[in-house]
Structures are given as C-alpha cells and as structure tokens.
Amino acid sequence: MSEVLVVVEATREFGVKKVTLEMLTLARELGTPSAVVLGGAGAAQALSAKLGEYGAEKIYVAEGEEIDGYLVAPKATVVADLVARVQPAAVLLASSQEGKEIAARLAVKLDNGILTDVVGLAADGTATQVAFAGSTIVKAKVTKGLPLVTVRPNSLNPVPAAASPAVEQLTVSVTDTDKLAKVVERVAEQKGSRPELTEASVVVSGGRGVGNADNFKLVEEIADLLGGAVGASRAAVDSGYYPHQFQVGQTGKTVTPQLYVALGISGAIQHRAGMQTSKTIVAVNKDAEAPIFELADYGVVGDLFKVVPQAAEEIRKRK
Amino acid sequence: MNIVVLVKQVPDSGADRSLRSDDNTVDRGSANNVINEMDEYAIEEALKIKEAHGGEVTILTMGPDRATESIRKALSMGPDKAVHVVDGALHGSCAVATSKVLAAALGQLGADLVLCGAESTDGRVQVMPHMIAERLGVAALTGARKLTVDGSTLTVERQTEEGYEVVTASTPAVVSVWDTINEPRYPSFKGIMAAKKKPVQTLSLGDLGVAPAEVGFDGATSAVVEHLKRPPRSGGEKITDEGEGGVKLVEFLASEKFV
C-alpha cells in the first residue's frame, strides 16, 4: 500500500495533538501512515512513541532552527520535496492556521488541489466538508494531483494501532525565500490545565449574559468540573470579558465537542456558526425566546447566577 | 508606501447561504452580497499606515460585475483607487487558480505591502495570503493582531494557540489581519460621495496574461461532487428554573453520561 503522509501537529512542549491521532487513524484507511515531524530540535524523539501507538509505520523528521525559526515556508518546502520523492497516496494536515498555511504553499508548489476543513475522507479521495456555518454538507474531490486535505479536529475517534516506526532524518534544503518571515519571539501565555478549545470534548462558553470578566469564573468552574475548555461569544469578547483566542463563532474558532454548554449566550448566527455541529448542546439563558434554545437539546430558562452555581454544586455532589 | 488591499465580496454571513444546485458554486444571485468583514480591518490598517507614513492605498478585487458595489463601499472608507479583475471565464475558479490571478494582478501593481483579511466568511479557507506569497516569492505574515511599520521592516504580533509570536519581514510582503487589530472606520458622507469619482480600473484575464483554461471550471484543481443542506437542529426539552434548574440540568448531563 502507498504511504499516506500525516503532517504532525503538536504543542510547543512536544505534546501530540489529538487531531494528529485522528489523522493517523484516517490514514490507516487510505494506506500506510507515515508521520512527518517538523519542528524544533528534539521534537521527533519526544513525539515518536505516541505516533507509533497510533500506527505510524515511518516517521520523517526535519528539525531545528532552519525549520522552526520562520513562518511555515520552510516546512512547505520540506514536505514538497518529500511528496516528490515518495509519491504518497494522500497528504493530511491539521485544519489549524499552520496546517492550512503549509497546505496552501504545497498546493502552489505542486500545482495540486486542496480541500480544507475536511471531516471525512473516503478511499476514493472523496472528502466530506461542512460549509456555511455547519448548514451545508459538501462532498468534494481534488481533481488535480493527490488528495491534499486539512482535517478538522474532532472529526473522528482516534483509535490506537501499535506500530514500530522507522525514523528517517530528512535533509533540509530550505531556500532564502523560505526564510523571509522570521520568528523573533515566542511568548507562552498562562493556559492552565484546560484542554485546547478546538480539540476539547466538552466546551463551556459564556456570553454577554455573564456580565463581566470576573463572573467568567463561573464559566471556568463548570468547565473544570466537566474537564472541558472555556469559550466565549463575540459579544463577551468585544466587551472585554474574555480573551479573543477563546472566541467561538463565525470570526473565531469552530468547535465540535461532544457537549457544548452555552451560558448567557443568546445564539446569534455569528455564534451558532462556530458551535452548531456540536453533538449535544445545553443552554442556560434568562430570555425564553433566545435563539440558542432552538438548538439546545436541553435548555434552562433562568438566571444563570442561580442555575450555574447550583449545577456546580450538584456535579460536585455526584463526583 | 504603496499598499494594495485584497477585498472579496461574499454573501452576508448573517443570512442563510447556500451553494447553487446547477454548478455547485456559491449562490450569489439570491444573497445579500457584502464586503468580507475581515477585509474592512485590512482596509483600516492600510489607511492608518498611509496616514502615518504616506503612500497610496489600492483596492484589488477579483469577482463578477456586481462586486463593483463592494469596491465602491471599500473606496468610501478612504482608499485612493481600485482594480477590479473581472472576466466571465473566472466563474468556478478554485483557490489555486484564484491565487494565480491575484498574483498576476499584484505583479502589475507592484505593491510594497499587500494587506488582506485572515479569512473570508464564505469559504473560511485561510490559504490565499500564503498562496500569493509563494507565487510572488515574498514573505507572508499571517493572522496579525498588531502591525508595526518601520521603514521597510514590518513587525507582526500574531495570536497562537499557546500565546503569541512576534514575526518580522522586509517589504514587499503579504500581511493578513484578524478583527482584533483595529476598529474599522465608518464611511463619512464625504467619503461616500468621493468614492463615486475614484478611479476603478478593470482588468481581464488577457490583460493579466492568464489563459482562460487555467481558471474557472476548466482550470479547477478540485471539484464539488455534491452538496446538501444539513437538517436544522431542533430544540429539545426546555424548562423554566423554579429553584431546581441547576439540579435538573445536571440530571440531564448525567443521563447523557457527561457527569
């Protein structure tokens, strides 16, 4: 079977992201998965055990300042060279900003079609995408070149399948043009132990109804009790209640968790665009006519400052 | 500084949107078509740079005839002129072909800085800045929440999952912006009147030296096979809190095995 290249998405502390495990699981359906690790020195060594657990038969590695010190262009060059050499059956990347950007450059370099935000990929290369804020399901195919797709996190269940990957160091031959956008500083911000928003299986979001930044502690408390991530509506972010990187919606993140909890969120189209493909949705809002209730599998009309603390207490009692 | 801002006309994301049943392209005929929201932030940023450093701001749009409305709207914010790439053969173009056309137009315009929104609200594909940069052999600084111009040096602060990065490049470069970068101005009455007289140059594929076979359906590198409307979600149970709302909510979560 042909190789399927999976470009690994990991945190800067070398944690394999869940979407990578999803891609490896998907790649097994299409051929023999080969993971491609592109990052700072030491990345492959830290990541290889996990990649093997999920079926990577091979790990290609390009590491170091030449790769990691610039925005995406060197990574695209490395993957393009690899594609030309191994002629894979498909190339999978994460549908993150970086994954899409590497894929964008690959598409131009290889004069190859590209499909983003893919939630499923059949053996014949037909990809399933969700468009227009989750309202439309699209089946599409790359018609020029190989299937080059970016996979949306939480699209499928990662399934382990142990393999003992062979590790191959790639010769890095990036050009001067690849080094035009230099990363001069990386600042890690306090993040705590919560899962990442797009990968979390539970997301608890607060909206304008939360009232102020301090009250977001209530949202965080429920998120922590459920082991979830915290999100915020655009109204809450614009009002300064919570930082922008946690915004869920049309101009923020798209999430598809198993459970989405909307607290004090009216459910404007802007917000629904980012969360309406969640599996189960529950909502607390004081306005019985709020559109969020049209989506919610379970809705409580009431004052969130009464309902939410009581819910927190009840969850603690049951633990 | 010679700045070109990429502006895309998109169907209003606040209303129902769909794909056409005949050729699987975005249905623009029945939609309220507007400037892609994120592009307004790119226009604002361009105007601020011009105000601080001098230069000229040009709007570049690829789209059908009706995109003229969005071009005039963009001009009413303050840019100097616009270029509209319009050609019947472009209908059905994929992202790869679109980047070819935009890169050809940018090659003719000779910009120091190309600004654009980080994504469009219709496709949300986010690939255009890097595709264009790859074709032009220039830097792409994407997802800026802050942009500083110092002579020919551009410095961008970009949000990442784990914090933020500071990235630099020299002009010429492509910079894409998020809606956190500024607050776009509203067009003034004077601006709206002035926009009607600003030059809008139209370019065809022939003017750009791009063959019709490289774009549109013929040149597409991907194709939609089929599409269907997802059935709308229907609301489930809705209760009114009478003192037990929190407990009942948790009972539901427990029944679904979340607690």
Describe the protein's architecture and organization.
The radius of gyration of chain A is 21 Å and the shape is elongated. Chain A has two domains: 3-179, Rossmann fold; 202-318, TPP-binding domain (Rossmann fold). By secondary structure, chain A is α/β, with parallel strands linked by helices. Chain A has helices spanning 18-30, 43-53, 65-68, 73-86, 97-110, 216-226, 234-238, 269-275, 304-318, and strands spanning 3-7, 32-39, 58-63, 90-94, 115-121, 127-131, 136-142, 148-151, 166-169, 182-188, 202-206, 229-232, 259-263, 280-285, 298-301. Chain B contains eight helices and 13 strands. Chain B has helices spanning 37-53, 68-76, 95-109, 128-136, 189-195, 205-208, 216-219, 245-255; strands spanning 2-6, 9-11, 33-35, 56-62, 81-85, 113-117, 139-150, 153-160, 163-170, 173-177, 200-203, 222-229, 237-240. Chain B has a nine-stranded mixed sheet, sandwiched between helices. In chain B, a hairpin with a 2-residue loop joins strand 8 and strand 9 (163-170). In chain B, helix 2 packs across helix 5 (189-195) and helix 3 packs across helix 4. Chain B starts with a strand and ends with a helix. At the A-B interface, helix 5, strand 5, strand 7, strand 10 and helix 8 of A face helix 3, helix 4, strand 7, strand 8 and strand 9 of B.
